[in-house]
Amino acid sequence: MQNKRIDPKLAIDGGKAVRTKPFPSRKLFGQEEKAVVLALFDEAIESGHQILGYNGLQEEAYCKEFADFLGGGFADGVNSGTNAVYVALRALEPAPGSEVIVPAISDPGGVMPAALCGCIPVPADTCEDYYTIGAKQIEEKITDKTSAIIVAHIAGIPADMDPIMELATSKGIPVVEDCAQIHGARYKGRMVGTLGTISSFSLMFGKHHATGGQGGMVFTKDEELYWKVRRYADRGKPFGLESAPNGNVVAALNCNMDELHAAIGRVQLKKLPDITVRRRKIAKTIAERCRQELKSVRLKEEPADCEGVYWFLLFAYDQKLLKISKEDFVKAVAAEGLPVGSSYKHVPVRMEWMTNFKAQQNPPIVDDSRYELVNVDKVDDKYFNCALHEDYSQKELDDIIEALKKVEQAYLK
Ligand SMILES: Cc1ncc(COP(=O)(O)O)c(C=O)c1O
Fold it and tell me: Would the pTM count as exceeding 0.90?
């Protein structure tokens, strides 16, 4: 039954939209973050000391707390998620010219580091029903030149890591888990980010866990690898080495996290468990209401033995039940005031930079068959997305369901 206050005429056809007020913005930072930043400034002004850009006490404490959050290990703060992937990959020391298997769908920042490490990014296709890559798709792309695999957990739903790690371990290939969209999730009881050889996190403002405008973290349980991370994150300074008589030991960029970001991250980390619980609660309620109240739309959920954290909502759309295309359906839902998008098809290897990269190789990469991706397009046809954050109230939840119901009723076959 349609709610009585809802105008049955679609907003796209001139009716009254379900939601006329914009969705609320996220209240990520509060007085506590402001206080720790001001305290650092007060101390610097009073003492005449600088706010450090590397190896400061805030960063040291934050990295320890972050590693503890993941159950123990070693973490190093960096200045973006892109640089976290870059540093993680460089620490694995893939041979120049070797191949790195990259996710078909990800942010370019999760793929470009392979090229910047002097390697050839080779995409694994997505799974058949989801945006992450799987063991089968990875195996199809492994050759004797493969030096590393990057797996991105998209939308806050964990990739199926056990078969991926089994395959990678059997071939002796290290795995970077790109956790930019999945802080605080669990895979079969284990923290996501502890499953691969090394993991990277984006801590930019749009993520569940953030250190300010930009930020990143690299995590590993392997101490030797951690010291390499430190060296590759900071111009090859000889961290963890007993002696380095001739100075810096590898050429690397300066990817350091500074004290201001670390101090914010420490406050934010305490809030992360609550943020993930709230997001999950909203997502689970929406999933249940879709099952109860809608026919053609379902929320994509994590497998039953995992705990996703829902960076955004991914809705599966059943074309067979509806008279219009997914794009038109999403346009109608957007006109009802929902923050929806019809596609999350970010395919970095199809972008201009990759065409240029391939042309610049010696010899140029012309055999494109390894870059053909089949599932990516099929998967993307199945889903549309909706923004989500932990500050959504019952009102936002109701409006999401009401708008979907209204559009569905107008277009059901
Ligand atoms: C999967 C993935 N990897 C890497 C990145 C890059 O992170 P950043 O924007 O912090 O550089 C992002 C950013 O959204 C991402 O979603």
Answer: yes
